[in-house]
Amino acid sequence: MSITAPGYTPPDSADASTITNYFRDLDFKDNEDRKENSDDSEYKSKVKEWSVDKVVDWLKLEKLDVFVDKFKENDITGKVLYEIEKSDLEKMGINSYGQCKSFFISLKKLKPTTPTYYHQRGGEPNRKICDFFLKGLCKFGDKCKYSHGNSSTSTTTTTTTTTAVLSDPSLKPKEDRNTRLEKQKERKDNYVPFRSNFGIHTYLGKVKSLMDAGGDIISKIKADIHIWEDILSRTNLDNEIINDVLGIFVDEKITESFLKETINYFYSILMKSNFIGHYNNLPNKIQSLDENDGVGFKSIASLFKQIGDRFQEGVEFIPLELFITKFQKSILSKTDTNIAFILKVLRQRKLFRSQNQSSDVNSDETSYKDFPLVPMLSELRSNKFDSRIRPLKLGIYDSPDEYLNTHFHLLREDMIHPIRETLADV
C-alpha cells in the first residue's frame, strides 16, 4: 500500500523518483517566481530616486507620451511622481479623464504591493504567507509550501491582532510620517551650526548649482530645513548671502511650483525669521541698495509680493515703508512700472489691514441691504477704504448674510476704487 500526500494524486505509473522530481520542480519554479518578485520590489523601491529624465523614460515606456512635456516643464522627479494626485495633473493642464485614468493605472504598478507577513497557527511552526496568494496569482493551491492565511480558530489573540495591524494599509501613511519625523529630529539633533559665513556661502553655492542643473531643489530645501532655519536665524548676514537667499526664493522653480503647501511652509519660516526682521539683514541690504541696482530692487519686490500674496498678514512682517522710500529715490521709480504696481498693492493691503484692525463695526451696520450700488460723492472723494469692508473668510461663513455682506462690499469697492484714483489724479 503506497502513501500519498494529502490532496495529491500521483500519475498512474509514478514511482518514488518521479514524485521527488515533481516536488523538486515545484520548489524550483516557486523560488524563481519569488526571486522575480523580489527584484520587482527592489525596482519599485527606487522609484523615489528617479531623476526627471528617468520619469520621462518611464512615461514613454508606458505609452504616456502626452504627459512628457508637462512633466519636464514642472521638474517631476520620482519623489514627486510617487505622491502626485489628480489635482496636481489638473494644475499642469491635464484634464482628460481617460489620460488621467491611464496614468494612475500605470502609476499603481510602480508602488509596492502588500508586504509579506508572518503568523503562527496553533500547533504549527511559523510559516511564511504566500505573497502570490495575496495577489491571487499562486498556481500551486494546496500544494504550495507557504501558508495561504487560512488560520484555524486556535490562532492566538496576540498573533491575530498583530497580523491585522500589520496588514492594515491605512496605518502605513502614519508609519511613514512617523519615520520621516524621527529622521528629521535625528538630523536636527546631530546638526552642527555653521561657524562662519564662509560655510553658509559654500552651502548656498551648492544649492544654486543644483538649481541651475535642474535638480529637485524643493526636496533639497525640505531635507535641509534645519540648515535653512540656522541660516535665516542669523543676525549679521553679509550682502552676498542675502543676495543668494533672495535669488533662491524668487526663482521660478520655487514661486511657480504646484507644491503649494510645501512652498508656503518655506516662506512662513523666511517671513518670520531674522533674515527679514533683523535690521542687520534685509533692512540693512535695502538701505545700502544703489539707485541703479535693478536686480536688487526687483528681487526684493518679488520676495515681498510672494509673501503678501501667500499670507494675509504678510505685509506686517516686511520692511515695506523702508523699501518704498528707497525705491522712490532710485532711477527705477521712473521706469519700472512693475515694481511700482507691486508696492502700490502692498501698501493698500497694509492700509486695509490697519483700518480693519482699528475699527469694530457691528455686523448690522454693514448690511448690504442698507447701501446703494451707486457710490456717493463723499466715497469718491475719500482717500480711505470703507471700514465696512471685510476680507474673504477662510472656511465656512457664520450665516448667508455674512457671506453676502462680505462679497457685496468687496465687489462694490472694486468698482469704486478705480474711479476714486482717477478723480485724485485730476
UniProtKB/TrEMBL annotation:
<feature type="compositionally biased region" description="Low complexity">
    <location>
        <begin position="151"/>
        <end position="163"/>
    </location>
</feature>
<dbReference type="Pfam" id="PF00642">
    <property type="entry name" value="zf-CCCH"/>
</dbReference>
<feature type="domain" description="SAM">
    <location>
        <begin position="50"/>
        <end position="113"/>
    </location>
</feature>
<dbReference type="InterPro" id="IPR036855">
    <property type="entry name" value="Znf_CCCH_sf"/>
</dbReference>
<feature type="zinc finger region" description="C3H1-type">
    <location>
        <begin position="124"/>
        <end position="151"/>
    </location>
</feature>
<dbReference type="InterPro" id="IPR001660">
    <property type="entry name" value="SAM"/>
</dbReference>
<keyword id="KW-0479">Metal-binding</keyword>
<keyword id="KW-0863">Zinc-finger</keyword>
<dbReference type="Pfam" id="PF07647">
    <property type="entry name" value="SAM_2"/>
</dbReference>
<keyword id="KW-0862">Zinc</keyword>
<dbReference type="GO" id="GO:0008270">
    <property type="term" value="F:zinc ion binding"/>
</dbReference>
<feature type="compositionally biased region" description="Basic and acidic residues">
    <location>
        <begin position="171"/>
        <end position="186"/>
    </location>
</feature>
<feature type="region of interest" description="Disordered">
    <location>
        <begin position="147"/>
        <end position="186"/>
    </location>
</feature>
<dbReference type="InterPro" id="IPR000571">
    <property type="entry name" value="Znf_CCCH"/>
</dbReference>
<protein>
    <recommendedName>
        <fullName>C3H1-type domain-containing protein</fullName>
    </recommendedName>
</protein>
<feature type="domain" description="C3H1-type">
    <location>
        <begin position="124"/>
        <end position="151"/>
    </location>
</feature>
<dbReference type="InterPro" id="IPR013761">
    <property type="entry name" value="SAM/pointed_sf"/>
</dbReference>
